[in-house]
Amino acid sequence: MLKQLKKKFPLIECIVVEPGIEHIARYKELVDEQKDALKGVTFDWRQETIQEFCKANADASKKFHFVSAIHSCYFIARKDLDFYLKAIYGWTKGKILIMIGPGNEGFCVCTVRGDTRLVN
Q: Do you know which Gene3D superfamilies this protein is assigned to (predicted)?
């Protein structure tokens, strides 16, 4: 995804929020393997859940172009999804598209300009 965005945007600020150190380590390995293609992308690595990140960054003063929370989003309860999607949107400098598929219950969540739509 980042390589595709780099074709249009030369500088990208990315935050990676993942609870598992092994996921962050693998993500860093993939970034390192693609370092030439990802020149101009800066990363802020956070080993925490979305819930923990939201508590620590409630003011959303720092904005990012790209938020990666693949494994963090997996643990969001469906009843809390709107709250956390709005929080994630608050950290962005633009539009977002989020796809989540927990267990057997696949669904896609699209957030565009703060309007959240849940599509089964």
A: Vaccinia Virus protein VP39
Structure tokens at 15: 């935050």
Q: Are the CB atoms for 66 and 2 separated by under 8 Å? A: yes
What would you report as the CA-atom Rg of the chain, rounded to the nearest whole angstrom? 14
For the stretch 20-36, pLDDT in tens is 899 899 999 999 999 99
- Burial (Cβ within 10 Å: 0-12, 13-18, ≥19) of residue 92: middle
For 62-79, the pLDDT digits (tens) are 788 888 887 777 777 878
Which residue is it, tokens 């859940």? 49
Rounded Cα gap, residues 81 and 24, in angstroms: 23
Query: Residue type for 11, please?
Result: L
Residues 6+ positions from 76 with CB-CB distance below 8 Å: 50, 51, 84, 100
AA identity, residue 64:
F
Q: What is the pTM of this model?
A: 0.74
Residue with tokens 């990208």: 12
